[in-house]
Amino acid sequence: MPIPIASLLLFSLVVAVTVPSSRAAADAVPQPRGFYVNCGADKEVQAGSIKWVPDAAFIAVGNASKIDKPNVLPVFSTLRHFPDATARKYCYTLPAVKGSRYLVRTTYFYGGFDGGADPAIFDQIVDGTLWSAVNTTETSRRGMSTYFEMVAQAQGKSMSVCLARRPDTKSSPFISTLELVNLEDSMYNTTDFGKYVLTTVARSALGVKGDIVSYPDDQYNRYWAPFTDGNPTVESHSPISPADFWNLPPARALKGGITTSRGKNLIVQWPTLELPLASYYVALYFQDSRTASPYSWRVFDVAVNGKDFFRGLNASAAGVMIYSNMMQLAGKMEIVLTPNATCPVGPLINAGEIYQIVPVGGRTATRDVVAMDELARSLKNPPPDWAGDPCLPPQNSWTGVNCSPDSPVRVLSLDLRNRTLSGSLPDSIGNLTGVQTIFLSGTKLSGPIPDFSSMQNLTALHLDGNQFSGTINPSLGKLINLRELYLNNNNLTGPIPVNLITKPGLVMRTEGNKLE
Asked: What's the whole-model pTM score?
């Protein structure tokens, strides 16, 4: 189960951070690949070269609200909130390319939209993985927004980002903006994204003052927060090429650096927050600030929390990145750079990233996910939480859906009896081969009864009290474990298949039809 790390992710940013630092530069740069969703909006909003689109195409539930606050950027002037306390989750679904890597960012600006003193506390979920709790109380009291980031891999043709109530949720969960940004396959590629996701703890441009570095300087719209301490800072005088570094950091994030005098150790406590005991991905970036020459070199050892991280690092004008992919950390993190005895200048460091490594929260069988999605699309007025992963996290499975505890997770039963439903059952429901019971009594489903012959684990099928028409599908007689078949009070016609009449141990009800 992922560790909730909302306290680590409460990067408070002034609302204006979403506007590029240079509007003229932004206008000349194409929009980063991905989706930029303005939640609750009814029209597109342009911020520099980024076009924020309304969210109606990506979600079917929730209510839109406006924020009545002065000096709020258009992208934060609306939000979507979710007052329905019966739903187990509220999901956005965005198109994706299976196997591709994405930066997921959610941003929350409360603005007192519901007239309350403090915002709700709730969970956020990506696909089937519980990401973190969302607690924006402190930043909201300061009139600021809160954002969360994750790097994850798409497991199918879409990715879902969901909000869910917790036992202590007292008001409506809400969201202001949602981003799904395409990353290159080479970025963060030492992580096994089939097993893990990366949740952002800190990403900083060291020795840089002023605004957060983001798009258009970072073509992937990552946020690099400025960081300085009591150490001297320098500015680079040599050209910087992001392509020369793993993870493609923006040149502007490497323009500054933290350094010290020749022969001295450089000690940097970054990030400033306390880390919970966990595994982390740590990436550190170095680039000699001097003009490139045969003498522009810096050699030093790098240690983190007293342990060797890299020995004999040569930070040339071309730059270099070093990383640890599964580093155990807890508490404060201290970086110590120890110079080589012959190095003509002191060590320096330019930027850093740290992510908590979170195990993926299980996997629902792909065939079940596809079949359940098709079932949801074939129904009119399905339960409001029928989006995202149908089974995971277990406490946030779809209403009426029961699943197995093993991996891959399988759907075991459907129970939507006496709900206000309409629509039909698609043929693909037969792909739910793990299902044992289906209870759809007392709805308004119509159309033919599909072929269930592949569902050999099915023991009970209750379709009574609906508007099914046509003949009884003889495939039902091939279900060797079927013990209950309720088809009464529909609009079925024709003969009852002989293999059902003669099936031993079957309790069958067919009254209220026009059968022969």
From this structure: 0.90
